[in-house]
Fold this sequence. Notes:
Blueprint: E1 2-6, H1 12-16, E2 25-33, E3 37-39, E4 43-53, E5 58-61, E6 66-69, E7 74-77, E8 80-84, E9 91-95, H2 96-99, E10 111-114, E11 119-123, E12 125-128, E13 132-137, E14 140-144, E15 147-149, E16 154-159, E17 168-171, E18 174-176, E19 187-192, E20 196-200, E21 203-205, E22 209-214, E23 222-226, E24 229-231, E25 236-241
Parallel strand pairs: 2-4, 3-5, 4-6, 4-7, 5-8, 6-9, 7-10, 8-11, 9-12, 10-13, 11-14, 12-15, 13-16, 14-17, 15-18, 16-19, 17-20, 18-21, 19-22, 20-23, 21-24, 22-25
Antiparallel strand pairs: 1-2
Amino acid sequence: MKTRRYGVFTLLLVVLLAIPLSLSAMVEVDGFIHNDTTWTDADTILVTDLVVVDSTARLTIQPGTVILFGYNSSLWVWGQLYAEGDASNDILFTSVVEAFGGTPSAGSWLGVNFYTNSSGIMEHCVFRYATNGVLAVGASVEFYDCLSENFSNSGFHINGGSDLPRPVVFERCTARQENIDLKGEGTGLIVYQAAEISIAQCRFYDCLTGIDLSANGTAYPRFTITHCDIRDNLLYGIYVHTCT
C-alpha cells in the first residue's frame, strides 16, 4: 500500500475557506494492504484510487477516524475489516469534496465493498455520497448503529453470492436521503440471494424503496425484520420479489 503524508498546515487555506469536518494530518493511501493495519483518528485517511484488503490481512479502523474518498475510489475487502466506532466517536466514510466544504454528488465514490469469504464488523459508522454505502457479496458482516445517506444506488447492498450465502446482521441502522435533492431516490437496503439476514430496530426512509428483498432461487431464505421504522419512501416500503 502506498502512503503519502501531509501536515495540517498544508490544508490551512482550505480550512480558512470553511470546512465542516475537523481534520487531522492527511495521509493518502491506495493499493493493497497485505499485513494487519490500523487506521486511527491521528490521521485523516484519503483514499485516492482503490485500496484492497488482502485475504490474509485485517484492517482495523478506530473510533473517530475520518476516511475521505476521491472520485470513483473505493475500499475492497477480501480479508477482514473491523470498523468499530462508539456513541461519541463515529467513523466517517465520505467524499473528499464534503470535507473541503462542498456538496458532493451522490455516487461520487463507489463505497466499501466486502467480497467472498471476507468478514467484518461495522459499528457506529457513517457513509455519505457513495454509490452503495456498503456492498457485501458472499461475506459475513455485522452492522450496528450505522448510517448510510445521500447514496446514488443503495445505502446497503447485500448479495449472498454464488456459494452458500453468509449470515448478515443489521441492528439499529439507518438508510435515508438527507439531501433534499435526493429524496425519493435509491434503495435503503437491497438484499439479493441471501439465505439468512436479520434486520432489527432499523430505519429506512425518504428513499425510492425502503427494503428490496429477493431470494432469487435461494433455498429456504430467511428474512427477519423486527421493530423497524420504514416510511416516506416514494415507491415501496418493503418490496419482496422473485422468491421461488
